[in-house]
Amino acid sequence: MTGSKTSDDKPIYSISAAAKLLNISVHTLRMYEREGLIVPFKKESNQRSYSQGDIDRINCIRNEINASKISINGIRTIYSMIPCWDIVKCSKKERGKCASFNGSDSPCWTYDHSNNVCGTKNCRECIVYSQYSACCNVKELIKSLSK
Amino acid sequence: MTGSKTSDDKPIYSISAAAKLLNISVHTLRMYEREGLIVPFKKESNQRSYSQGDIDRINCIRNEINASKISINGIRTIYSMIPCWDIVKCSKKERGKCASFNGSDSPCWTYDHSNNVCGTKNCRECIVYSQYSACCNVKELIKSLSK
DNA sequence: AATAGTTGATATTTATAAATGTCAACTATT
DNA sequence: AATAGTTGACATTTATAAATATCAACTATT
To answer: Is A74 on the interface with B (CB under 8 A)?
Structure first.
């Protein structure tokens, strides 16, 4: 991670500014969102904003796509393996009714979770999304679970 | 898993028989091997053989590629997340010098491991390869690590 | 010893994921 | 109120992963 969470999570870029910074089109940014890879900040008017943390994250995603040749569906599947239940201390009972725990091809932040331990929490602010979602970090996370 | 390990792991198919059964070309089978997804049985003459377990496994891989749209590099990366160190009870000390534990883009069975806990064991016969390598099972495996 | 199948290496084809373009309705900015 | 940027939906392009083809050397089978 570069910088602290707070300094990285201010919504400072519009979609076109972010696209220019990343050297991609705005369409691509919307696609990544539709595919469940990113959760940009949204204004009341429904317009997207991106923080420096988002830019870092998207650079990581682009590296997986372009250099590591992992498809978007592959990245989504890898994200879905993040043991969020362990990170957010989800109870056995809660896990039972959690779509993320029970499914295996989409990350937790793509599901509605109004009736589990995550409640109405904004996924952007959740450590699962903000810290562990550099795909290259997922294996490290799995290692840390080992006895 | 269909059937027991022993009954599924007899080398009964030649590469062309396996290809016909799977409705793909022999080239594709060799490609999957080169890409680190499968480890077929090899005769002294260097010719490949495939067991029923191999066929099941390859069907699973093809489903990931064709239906789930996960690229070969994505599948390999997912395989590399299998916590083999936990499954084979690899000591802390052994982990330190293990390429699989320390890398993150290729599964353990693609590395030389003559000088760690796996020694000269044939990966085909290792539970990590034979049981946990249906990509769809990896998340289940991660779940089982949770406290 | 002749035929069929295999090997690895290199080249080519094809299928499609990823990215971009276009549009009309809408929102923000000057 | 005029200009610039955004939205989602749908269509199109392009980049390339996945699969197949070709080859000469080799191995198995009859």
So the answer is: yes
